[in-house]
Design goal:
20 helices; 484 residues; three-stranded antiparallel β-sheet; RNA-binding; elongated; mainly alpha; Rossmann fold; 4 domains; three-stranded parallel β-sheet; 10% strand; 12 strands; Glutamyl-tRNA Synthetase, domain 3
Length: 484
Amino acid sequence: MKYPVRVRFAPSPTGTLHLGGARTALFNYLYAAKHKGCFHLRIEDTDVKRSKQEYVDEIRDSLRWLGLNWDGPIVFQSERKTNHRYAVRQLLKADKAYRCFCTVEELKKERENAIKSGMGYQYSGKCLDLTLSQIKLKINGAEPFCVRLKIPRGMTKFTDLIYGKISVMNKEIDDFIIQRSDGNPTYNLTVVVDDSDMEITHVIRGEDHLTNTPKQILIYKMLGKRIPKFAHLPMILGPDMKRLSKRHGASGVQEFHRQGYLPQALLNYLALLGWNPDTDQEIFTVDELINNFRIEQVQKKAAVFDEKKLLWVSGQHMAQSSSKELFDRIRRLNPDWQIDTDKDYLLRIIDIQKKRIKKLSEIITQSDFFFEDPGTYDPKTAKKRWRDETINKLIRGYIHRLSQLEEWTEKTLESELRELAEEMNVGASKLIHATRLAITGIPHGPSLFLLMELLGKAICLRRLKVALERLPLLLDSDEEGVGS
RNA sequence: GGCGCGUUCGUCUAGGGGUCAGGACAUCGGGCUCUCAAUCCGGAAACACGGGUUCGAUUCCCGUACGCGCUACCA
């Protein structure tokens, strides 16, 4: 039973790539990588009305961003119509399928009646009994028809790699349509023909396809094709326990991209959603995911998407990533970010920030004070940390010491401050908080002395002096802040 | 309605006939600390329900409930 593994991810371009699709793609990718097989991308665009080129582009870009690279060219289902029609003709010829001349309206009425009377609806099989001459007459009269599969008696069974043994009585399966009256084949037919032609060995897809599988197996058998193995992945749910969708806010891969998540973090989180690695490890590189991945370890139960945990995973990956990589990603996310600033300086900022924030975007939004003097001072903090005249005295003293300082390092900056505090008989933190406010304008941020070292002597002295002029004004005024 | 699938802390999960039902995120409390974050320590928090089988069931079996999916000339 040794044959190369070939899997595929087959989204329909009727929407953007969402988290469920991304996870399906990921598990296919992991399975292929783990078994040294290949991973293909097929776009299922047989629904002409709903398929859009922009979605094809979006799905492709999302997969690339995630790093889920596929082998070979993208297969477009719409370009494979000849093969689909050939299969339909074969089934027709072998009397395994039949033409149905019922109109959509007729069928709709039948279904409504059936539902009204509380019965489960199945196609009546009306056209199954048409005689050859009747069929010819209708065809000659250019009556439109679709093609239905003639479901045989019996039972269809298969063993799902995740769900185990599944069996269905064939009588539960309707004579479903495999070709529309416009000549276009439908999903259950195309998927079989394409998977078969692409020699897919393992069909890994969402659980919503579990009940389609027996139908497809029937087609494989009728066509005399080898049946691949199946693995169905549990659904991803929103907080309301419903299948995740746009309704739940962010669910598209690109939205997470834009929000500044790292692709490896998203993959890591998605992998953990519904799969257990059999260890206590939570943070994985993609290579580690590949090595550890076992499809048998995938859950049967649907999982709720939890952005809080994603955020935590993201923070872990941020801290682990090289500043160079983060820099490149920030630039790709936001090409204009500090474009005139020296790259080494930016790299040092990232060194400092990556340990305390969780997304790329936070490096951008929380680093202003590295580039510009504070325009305003946080009023609450000003009231708290710059309460009286003694602060002015302390800051003046610190300025004095700093201006004479030769070696401008985190260490010397700190010792100067602490010596001063002791000399003046105040707690060091009092001075530290005031200095932070003067230098950044806000009450939180990375280590003050590290920050000051990086900013350099000139800037720090300037900011301290300016603060000395502006902050005491806050004491007298009732205004909510001191603007520039 | 029919069929299929599922059900362990709020969430992701481990476990499996006898366990203090374990871990992670989130949450709460504390330590460290110049703030925020990170980190460390600690707390609260779960076997859907009912019947069997058994000395014993969260674990095995059968039901019920609930949820999800499919039931389209969507994929």
